[in-house]
Design brief:
Blueprint (H helix, E strand, L loop, with lengths): L10 H21 L15 H20 L23 H20 L22 H25 L9
Helix pairs in contact: 1-4, 2-3, 2-4
Length: about 160
């Protein structure tokens, strides 16, 4: 998926467009990895564990925090030391990831960027809940950072460098 049009000026269209762009970018980079379950970095995280993290990140921010829907184990992407973990196969995690992205799109479609997050999850009183626009921007920032991490992992694995914008 290519970047959204350079003529876009609507904040919602930009946020939604770039989120979908980076969702697709993550999968494109992972598809170029010979073994997404193998770590190539000193810290030991694996690309498939990072994909699992992104699925849970979408779920935490948009479904649990913003929409206020109860979710089982919102931090299921981490172990007791807070490290990203994955015991499932790449295909299982990819399916879970795609489902979380679709659920997040459904949540976002029904609401305004100025709507505040629920007071469930991490934003229970007395914390002031962020707006949907703020959350979407934060989620986009997570994607941009982790897409760069995956580019490096792909290069270290001997894969072709991912073309960036």
């Amino acid at each position: 998926m290519t970047e959204p049009s350079r003529q876009l000026s609507d904040p919602r269209a930009l946020l939604e467009g770039y989120l979908d762009h980076y969702r697709a970018e993550i999968l494109r980079v992972l598809d170029g990895l010979p073994e997404p379950e193998v770590s190539r970095v000193p810290s030991g995280w694996t690309p498939v564990a990072l994909l699992k993290h992104l699925a849970y990140m979408e779920r935490r921010w948009l479904v649990w925090d913003f929409a206020g829907e109860p979710v089982e184990d919102p931090y299921g992407d981490r172990d007791d030391e807070e490290a990203f973990v994955a015991t499932e196969s790449f295909e299982e995690i990819k399916e879970f990831y795609l489902a979380q992205c679709e659920r997040a799109r459904q949540v976002v479609a029904k609401r305004s960027l100025s709507d505040p997050a629920s007071q469930i999850g991490r934003f229970q009183p007395p914390k002031e809940p962020p707006t949907l626009g703020w959350i979407m921007f934060h989620v986009l920032e997570e994607y941009m950072r982790h897409a760069g991490h995956l580019d490096i992992a792909r290069e270290l694995a001997g894969g072709q460098e991912a073309a960036r914008l």
